[in-house]
Amino acid sequence: MLEEAEAIMLPGGQRVKGGIKNQQLVPDGWSRWWLCQENLLNVNKYAIMHRVDIHARDLRILDPFLSYPSTILGRDRAIVLNLEHIKAIVTADEVLLRDPFDDDVIPVLEDLRRQLKSPSNHGNNLDANFTLHNDADAAEEDDSPFEFRALEIALEAICSYLSARTTELESAVYPALDMLTSRVSSRNLDRIRKLKSQMTRLTARVQKVRDELEQLLDDDDDMADLYLSRKIYGASPKWSLASPNIESKISRASRASVTAVQDDGNDVEELEMLLEAYFMQIDGTLNKLSTLREYIDNTEDYINIQLDNHRNQLIQLELILSSGTLSLSIYALVAGIFGMNIPYNWNDGHAYIFKWVVILTGAVCILVFALILAWARQKNLIGS
After folding, report:
1. Residues in contact with 162: Cβ distance below 8 Å, sequence separation at least 6, in sequence order
2. Of 214, 227, 224, which is closest to residue 148 (Cα–Cα)?
3. Within 13 Å, how many C-alpha atoms sit on residue 163's CB side?
4. Distance CA 13, CA 363 (A)
5. Do 277 and 344 meet the contact criterion of CB atoms below 8 Å apart?
6. Helix (H) or strand (E) segment spanning residue 186
7. Which among 58, 234, 267, 381 could disulfide-bond with 261, CB atoms 3.0 to 4.6 Å apart, if both were Cys?
8. In angstroms, what CA-CA distances link 1 with 22, 35, 91, 96?
9. 65 touches 72 (CB < 8 A)
10. How far apart are CA 110 and CA 189, in angstroms?
């Protein structure tokens, strides 16, 4: 058994309290903890594939460097979970969690340890438990199979995580929209653009989780594949050789669940109720995002109406100025005619006529300007 230490050093200098000394983290990030040995073991993907009997393509779904949508796959001896940052493999008696030192995964790890650890571990303060085992005595508190309890913890964690991100986004969007409504500026518009991009990405993530749960609920065969305890109870005893930990007997909770449904292999009511609960929760989160999008769209419509109104006011001002320019052009035309350097006899002895030309020309210009404005008001081109 490895010696206990106060902390273990992680890549980047991070330390985790209550870890195990003399452990090396493998590059692929898979780590598991054995309850019977009370030490932390690191295994590569090939050992995991051999232990839980899954294909490389299933394990590739959990690769953080590859972009795969949220997925819940049922295999013969394991459930492959890819729910955002929660990437795990659940068997009938253990949970293998990838990237356990990720900041978003640590709360999930704590929930798994708290709800699935065995009573013999109560006096143990190890904080690096990455594989959690089913326990016969602990199962008395919950009649659900071990894999369903682990699945419920993962679903609760991802639903709570996405709901928290939605709440944070709402707290940032609503004040920003109110500020934009009161004052339209480039800075406020850019802020709304960034928040809308975040909302679009978050909506896509929530939609993927919702679609996966909906797909499972629509297919009873896929839900039946998630009953690992039922498969183990009716499987050949030689299956225990595939995993060292299977030598322990199946929990009473798993056995009770299998016994209750052994007459009907297609009974998926228990899992269906579990999935429906979290489907409603994730659907509520999606509805919040839809409401938020509608609020943003309504605010954008309001801003566009304001901008259209301002543009209309500028057009009206341009019409008034153009009308005034047209009227003054008449005055300039008369002045140009009388200002020509052409000799004519009728100008002699008629100097008094200058003031009448000025007065009449000005009156004509004002009359033309007034007629144009009256016509524009009649056609509702400008406000009254």
Report:
1. 84, 202, 205, 206, 209, 282, 285
2. 227
3. 14
4. 88
5. no
6. helix 186-218
7. 267
8. 11, 12, 25, 21
9. no
10. 41
* Res 159 pLDDT > 90: yes
By the 8 A CB rule, do 363 and 330 touch? no
Q: For residue 159, count CB atoms less than 10 angstroms from its CB and return exposed for 0-12, middle for 13-18, buried for 19 or more.
A: buried
User: What are 96's strand-pairing partners?
Assistant: 89
Both tokens assigned to 365: 């210009």
* Angle (deg, nearest 10), helices 146-182 and 186-218: 150
Burial class (CB in 10 A: 0-12, 13-18, 19+), 354: exposed
- Could you give the CA distance from residue 52 to residue 243 in angstroms, rounded to a whole number? 7
CB 262 within 8 A of CB 231: no
Residue with tokens 């996966």: 212
**The pLDDT of residue 350:** 65
Query: Looking at the predicted structure, is the pLDDT value of residue 297 above 90?
Result: yes
Nearest to 133 by CA among 25, 244, 43, 2: 244
> Is residue 42 a contact partner of residue 8, using CB atoms and an 8 Å limit?
no
pLDDT of residue 209: 94
**Chain-wide mean pLDDT for the chain?**
75
Span of 69-78, 149-158, 196-205, 337-346 with lowest mean pLDDT: 337-346
114-132 burial code (b ≥16 CB/10 A, e <16): ebbbbeebeeeebebbbbb
pTM of the model: 0.69
**Angstrom distance (rounded) from CA 85 to CA 102:** 9
Pair of tokens at residue 105:
């995964």
